[in-house]
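Re: [ENG-882] Designed sequences occasionally contain unexpected residues at chain ends

Forwarding the minimal case from QA. Structure tokens:
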């Protein structure tokens, strides 16, 4: 199943539960933050199952956040990619990409 198909299913799930209609981008960002904490815990515990769950939950909250803001996550991703595709820089010793 394509990402766009799963994204639509998540949006439909959120609409059926009145999240898209009644939540806010801020509330969804807070939910994303909660899920990020769970991801950090899973990484620290080296728990791959929990990591996969957290990454999936983060994507759901990002989709819901975009839906409440009338944005399309795939379009947001494409815009971000177009900004970074020709970016030059280096990898820090911590594994972070540092742009020039």
């Amino acid at each position: 199943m394509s990402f766009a198909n799963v994204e639509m299913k998540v949006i439909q799930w959120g609409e059926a539960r009145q999240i898209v209609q009644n939540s806010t981008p801020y509330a969804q960002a807070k939910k994303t933050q909660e899920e990020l904490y769970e991801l950090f815990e899973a990484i620290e515990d080296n728990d791959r199952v929990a990591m996969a769950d957290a990454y999936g939950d983060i994507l759901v909250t990002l989709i819901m956040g975009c839906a409440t803001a009338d944005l399309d996550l795939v379009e947001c991703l494409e815009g971000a990619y177009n900004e970074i595709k020709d970016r030059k820089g280096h990898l820090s010793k911590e594994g972070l990409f540092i742009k020039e």
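QA comment: On inspection the terminal residues look reasonable. The first strand starts at residue 89 and ends at 91. Proposing we downgrade this to a documentation issue.
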